[in-house]
């Protein structure tokens, strides 16, 4: 054990699709310990499931890795995030899972989503938790349907399941994970009338609390499994996108964080809730007050492995730098349909023009993702959002220095690279804040490693290509002509 032990640390847990991660962070923002383990899942068509028992097993081993060089007595609290919309059904009496976990992108509820949308009065998607819950009520095995109708089973979000096992009993959920289960963030209550129209008893759904609220303390069995000391608080977390936003320090009005991983996700802060008639934007509630609006596109870095497999990306980055702008214009969708900055279930990717070689084609893809990012910010501004604060970028794509520079150039804005951008770090910050001031705590913990400035004249170099990209989306009926004009006028 090291002699420079921190006096106090907080633990953050991130349950992703392929791994579970734990970080321990001290009160200066230094990462004192890390642990992780792999997760597997099963996909069959629209169905995507995971075994909750695997979460618990990996949580134990990841905590023991993280605590290897840290005195467990220094840990003062734990908060957990998971993928938004991932849940399971558990026995109401003992919490034992009755179903596998239905994952965040499980789309089995395509038939139920329109009914849920009609009941709630706003657009939902098949991957949201509430449509999937209605799907189980209507099409699940007869015993499960009967138990749903009677309230003998209850919905448990991914982080809630782990929190329950840590504390040894049922816990409330947080209003962030509850969003896609239909929780009313304005009234801070479940929509009883809408649930009734869907045939769901409210007893199936958990109590909801503010993120950072204490849920209980680590039990003796939780301590035995993880190596954590019994008695430390387990606090309500937030969904993984909000956790990454916390880790980036993007918590003041006007600030935004862009996560470019497999897909592109933008999240920011507004004082008032964005009114979006097209329901492109959905908003989480800010623990400090105000709102955390955002949206998730279906473009992202995931397209690179598909279109340019087994290549030297660094070499392609260097080659792509010769094509600014590219001879082609690309809209590099991962699949059919778009969610943000516009909703178009029938949208398809396209390539215009004739790139001269593979490097030029690669450049068009990088630029195309950046064009979507710029259009997203224009859309947010058009809806009345303040986007003039600092912009942060996180996600796996920041490993490409060239792509990061390109994004700053096309946005025409400086972009900040946080030192510890992972969602687990964000959960450690939330655990430290508790139910107090999250923004103020983040200012103590979050460090910016670097700020990437746009190169002089770069925005002008890409102006025509960006305009052509926007015009093509409008010509295909995806963008309102007024929004298209506005997007091209924005600096």
TrEMBL record:
<protein>
    <submittedName>
        <fullName>Sugar (Pentulose or hexulose) kinase</fullName>
    </submittedName>
</protein>
<dbReference type="InterPro" id="IPR050406">
    <property type="entry name" value="FGGY_Carb_Kinase"/>
</dbReference>
<dbReference type="InterPro" id="IPR043129">
    <property type="entry name" value="ATPase_NBD"/>
</dbReference>
<feature type="domain" description="Carbohydrate kinase FGGY N-terminal">
    <location>
        <begin position="10"/>
        <end position="246"/>
    </location>
</feature>
<dbReference type="GO" id="GO:0016301">
    <property type="term" value="F:kinase activity"/>
</dbReference>
<dbReference type="InterPro" id="IPR018485">
    <property type="entry name" value="FGGY_C"/>
</dbReference>
<dbReference type="Pfam" id="PF02782">
    <property type="entry name" value="FGGY_C"/>
</dbReference>
<dbReference type="InterPro" id="IPR018484">
    <property type="entry name" value="FGGY_N"/>
</dbReference>
<feature type="domain" description="Carbohydrate kinase FGGY C-terminal">
    <location>
        <begin position="259"/>
        <end position="433"/>
    </location>
</feature>
<keyword id="KW-0418">Kinase</keyword>
<keyword id="KW-0808">Transferase</keyword>
<dbReference type="InterPro" id="IPR000577">
    <property type="entry name" value="Carb_kinase_FGGY"/>
</dbReference>
<dbReference type="Pfam" id="PF00370">
    <property type="entry name" value="FGGY_N"/>
</dbReference>
<comment type="similarity">
    <text>Belongs to the FGGY kinase family.</text>
</comment>
<dbReference type="GO" id="GO:0005975">
    <property type="term" value="P:carbohydrate metabolic process"/>
</dbReference>
């Amino acid at each position: 054990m090291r002699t420079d032990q921190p006096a106090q640390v907080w633990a953050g847990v991130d349950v992703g699709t392929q791994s579970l991660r734990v970080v321990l962070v001290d009160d200066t923002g230094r990462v004192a310990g890390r642990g992780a383990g792999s997760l597997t899942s099963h996909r069959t068509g629209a169905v995507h499931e995971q075994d909750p028992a695997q979460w618990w097993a990996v949580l134990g081993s990841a905590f023991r890795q993280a605590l290897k060089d840290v005195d467990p007595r220094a840990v003062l609290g734990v908060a957990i995030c998971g993928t938004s919309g991932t849940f399971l059904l558990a026995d109401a009496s003992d919490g034992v899972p009755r179903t596998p976990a239905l994952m965040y992108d499980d789309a089995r509820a395509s038939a139920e989503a329109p009914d849920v949308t009609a009941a709630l009065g706003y657009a939902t998607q098949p991957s949201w938790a509430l449509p999937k819950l209605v799907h189980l009520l209507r099409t699940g095995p007869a015993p499960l349907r009967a138990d749903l109708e009677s309230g003998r089973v209850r919905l448990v979000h991914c982080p809630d399941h782990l929190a329950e096992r840590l504390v040894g009993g049922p816990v409330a959920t947080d209003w962030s994970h509850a969003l896609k289960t239909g929780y009313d963030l304005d009234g801070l209550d479940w929509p009883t009338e809408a649930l009734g129209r869907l045939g769901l008893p409210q007893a199936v759904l958990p109590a909801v609390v503010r993120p950072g609220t204490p849920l209980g303390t680590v039990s003796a069995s939780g301590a035995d499994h993880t190596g954590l000391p019994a008695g430390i608080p387990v606090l309500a977390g937030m969904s993984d996108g909000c956790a990454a936003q916390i880790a980036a320090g993007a918590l003041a009005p006007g600030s935004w964080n862009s996560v470019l991983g497999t897909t592109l996700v933008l999240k920011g802060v507004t004082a008032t809730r964005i009114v979006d008639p097209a329901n492109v934007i959905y908003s989480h509630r800010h623990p400090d007050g105000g709102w955390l609006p955002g949206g998730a596109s279906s473009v992202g870095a995931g397209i690179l492995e598909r279109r340019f497999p087994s290549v030297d990306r660094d070499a392609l980055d260097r080659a792509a730098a010769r094509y600014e702008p590219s001879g082609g214009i690309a809209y590099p969708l991962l699949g059919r349909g778009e969610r943000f900055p516009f909703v178009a279930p029938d949208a398809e990717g396209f390539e215009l023009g004739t790139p001269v070689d593979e490097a030029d084609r690669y450049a068009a893809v990088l630029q195309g993702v950046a064009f979507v990012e710029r259009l997203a910010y224009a859309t947010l501004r058009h809806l009345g959002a303040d986007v003039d604060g600092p912009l942060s970028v996180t996600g796996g794509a920041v490993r490409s220095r060239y792509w990061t520079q390109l994004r700053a150039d096309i946005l025409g804005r400086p972009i900040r690279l946080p030192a510890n951008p992972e969602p687990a770090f964000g959960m450690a910050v939330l655990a430290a804040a508790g139910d107090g001031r999250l923004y103020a705590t983040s200012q103590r913990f979050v460090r910016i490693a670097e700020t990437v400035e746009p190169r002089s004249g770069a925005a002008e170099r890409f102006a025509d290509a960006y305009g052509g990209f926007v015009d093509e989306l409008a010509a295909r009926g995806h963008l309102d002509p007024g929004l298209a004009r506005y997007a091209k006028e924005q600096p």
